[in-house]
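Incident log, support desk, overnight shift.

02:14 A customer reports that sequence design results differ from what the structure should imply. Their input is reproduced verbatim below. On-call engineer (initials T.W.) acknowledged and began investigating.
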């Protein structure tokens, strides 16, 4: 059963409330325009899943410290910066039901706001002399950039194999969740084995999270109407990769031709979606997602059975069974 976020937050509810105030302060600027934009960003904040991973990982390893708040602020600032930049790169005008920064203030300002958030994240860590936390999260941002560029490069030729797909999502999505978990652990423990276990746990969840997102683009009985956005953007995700690898040469050529030349036509996108469903791509991808989730649970269950562990398990179920 999928528990609500309010229940999952139980062991860290007080810490998250205090963190919200710390995060608002970290976003403040004496420049009126920048302060107006950062206030808008704070207002439209999402579920705060990544700070939850930070605090729960810390609680799993001990008691939350001031370093944990630094880790959560660093992760959330750099994550927000990447979202602002992503909207510019993707020419997106909406996020989480709100207008994007570039939609309201244009690309130039959005890029500068993203740069400001990156620098604020680094300064939060440096002011608190948390060099290890900065190293962990900066490594994730580097990996995210590399994963995005790898995906763009491969989209031009549509030649992505499963191994390359996993390389992309490991860097592009899983690296930040992995850094949230390892930074949470590193804010409490100096044991490299514990920090690495939490990093690996976060990576497994990040991969499962992205697989779920890719499944949602094709729709299924749980999700409902497919979106087809990845097809329109010529992104090769696991359901399509599997379907193409098990297709006849004729079907493979036909589907690749549609993705290359007709991905903006709704009827053609629907044809690709139906092809993936009939080829077993959805079932195969779901099983892959559950396999990664199970690997994460195995790592998690090597830690003591405390309330934070149960909340982490529930949070994993929440992000992999979500409907939107």
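02:41 Re-run completed on a clean worker. Output:
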């Amino acid at each position: 059963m999928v528990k609500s976020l309010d229940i999952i937050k139980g062991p860290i509810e007080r810490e998250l409330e205090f963190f919200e105030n710390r995060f608002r302060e970290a976003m403040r600027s004496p420049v009126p325009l920048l302060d107006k934009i950062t206030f808008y960003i704070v207002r439209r904040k999402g579920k705060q899943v990544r700070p939850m991973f930070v605090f729960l990982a810390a609680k799993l390893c001990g008691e939350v410290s001031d370093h944990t708040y630094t880790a959560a602020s660093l992760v959330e600032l750099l994550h927000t910066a990447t979202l602002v930049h992503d909207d510019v790169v993707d020419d997106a005008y909406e996020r989480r039901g709100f207008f994007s920064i570039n939609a309201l203030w244009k690309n130039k300002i959005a890029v500068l706001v993203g740069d400001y958030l990156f620098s604020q994240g680094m300064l939060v860590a440096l002011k608190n002399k948390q060099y290890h936390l900065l190293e962990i999260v900066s490594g994730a941002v580097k990996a995210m950039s590399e994963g995005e560029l790898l995906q763009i490069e491969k989209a031009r030729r549509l030649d992505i194999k499963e191994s390359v797909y996993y390389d992309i999502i490991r860097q592009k999505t899983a690296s930040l969740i992995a850094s949230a978990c390892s930074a949470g652990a590193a804010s409490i423990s100096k044991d490299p084995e514990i920090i690495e276990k939490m990093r690996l746990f976060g990576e497994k969840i990040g991969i499962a999270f992205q697989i779920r997102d890719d499944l949602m683009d094709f729709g299924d009985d749980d999700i409902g109407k497919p979106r087809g956005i990845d097809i329109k953007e010529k992104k090769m995700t696991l359901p399509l990769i599997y379907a193409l690898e098990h297709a006849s040469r004729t079907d493979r050529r036909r589907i690749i031709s549609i993705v290359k030349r007709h991905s903006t036509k709704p009827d053609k996108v629907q044809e690709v979606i139906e092809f993936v469903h009939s080829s077993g791509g959805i079932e195969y991808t779901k099983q892959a997602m559950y396999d990664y989730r199970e690997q994460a649970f195995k790592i998690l269950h090597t830690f003591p059975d405390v309330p934070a562990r149960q909340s982490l398990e529930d949070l994993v179920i929440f992000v992999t069974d979500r409907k939107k």
